[in-house]
Design goal:
Layout lengths: L2 H18 L3 H12 L5 H10 L6 E2 L1 H6 L2 E3 L6 E8 L3 E2 L5 E2 L2 E11 L3 E3 L17 H11 L3 E5 L7 E4 L4 E5 L4 H17 L6 H18 L5 H12 L2 H10 L1 H13 L6 H5 L1
Parallel strand pairs: 8-10
Antiparallel strand pairs: 1-6, 2-7, 3-6, 4-5, 9-10
Helix pairs in contact: 1-7, 1-8, 1-9, 5-6, 6-7, 6-10, 7-8, 7-10, 8-9
């Protein structure tokens, strides 16, 4: 597949993200995110120790506002919330409330609740991998010096790429189609992002590359990729501009992945 076809797929991705981010489901997702707090490193550790499987936690009242209720008898997850003192003037002329201590606060994971479904804009793919795309991509990973492991990962993590270890891990409990998409995403990280940099840009580039690779291999990942890119790139024209500005890097990574597939496989023939 040439650069022109890659451009066409990136245009399709941009259009899909733009449509999603002007929809009611996107607005519902933004409202949902406002309800959930981002927890400190220490609180994330506390949550993980008490419930390693926790994915989304909130207080009793927040769950009620979201149309869900904590089931009777569920054990709370305890975190620390700051206690603020009276406002005091700072050197810059502003008044702020200093933290004077911490108090224990009870939260509950979504798995401990019942009620209305939460809005979802990024759904894991379902289905099989009839063309053995995963093994073809794993071979590509090995060719650039990375091992690939199918393992059970914590929480909602679908995969990760450890640069120092030259290792890619993929969540084994996902459907084969999702595993293919995840491996393509992590391969893009391996090719583009070892030096670090902007996390949001890295995720946009990796998922956009995965979208191009998967579509080329006959797998439609739009149900996952549109929402994932939107979450990292923002909505509307901002996301489209980000995809366009990274087009060269995305095309390069997709070409390296696809051109390196074993030409004797059905996957390469389909590409």
């Amino acid at each position: 597949m040439g650069a022109a076809e890659h451009d066409r797929l990136l245009d399709t991705l941009a259009e899909g993200v733009l449509t999603l981010t002007t929809s009611d489901s996107w607005r519902s997702q933004l409202e949902l995110q406002c309800r959930f707090h981002r927890y400190s490193f220490n609180n994330a550790l506390l949550i993980g120790v008490q419930d390693p499987e926790a994915t989304r936690v909130a207080g009793f009242a927040t769950w009620r506002m979201l149309g869900r209720s904590v089931r009777k008898g569920e054990r709370a997850i305890w975190i620390l919330a700051p206690v603020h003192g009276r406002r005091v003037p700072e050197d810059d002329g502003e008044e702020r409330r200093p933290i004077v201590g911490f108090r224990r606060v009870a939260v509950f994971d979504v798995a401990q609740t019942d009620g209305d479904d939460l809005p979802v804009i990024c759904s894991n793919l379902e289905g099989d991998d009839p063309s053995a795309c995963f093994e073809a991509l794993a071979g590509r990973a090995r060719a650039i010096g990375y091992s690939v492991e199918l393992v059970a990962l914590p929480g909602t993590t679908n995969g990760d790429c450890a640069f120092p270890l030259r290792r890619i891990r993929v969540e084994v409990r996902n459907h084969p189609a999702q595993r293919v998409k995840t491996l393509a995403h992590e391969l893009a990280h391996a090719l583009l992002h070892e030096g670090g940099g902007d996390r949001a840009l890295a995720e946009l580039e990796a998922e956009s590359t995965a979208y191009v690779v998967c579509r080329t291999l006959g797998l439609d990942s739009s149900g996952y990729s549109f929402g994932y890119v939107a979450c990292w790139a923002g909505g509307g024209p901002e996301a489209v501009a980000a995809i366009t500005s990274s087009g060269t890097a995305i095309q390069r990574a997709a070409a390296v992945i696809l051109d390196g597939l074993d030409p004797s496989t059905d996957v390469a023939e389909a590409a």
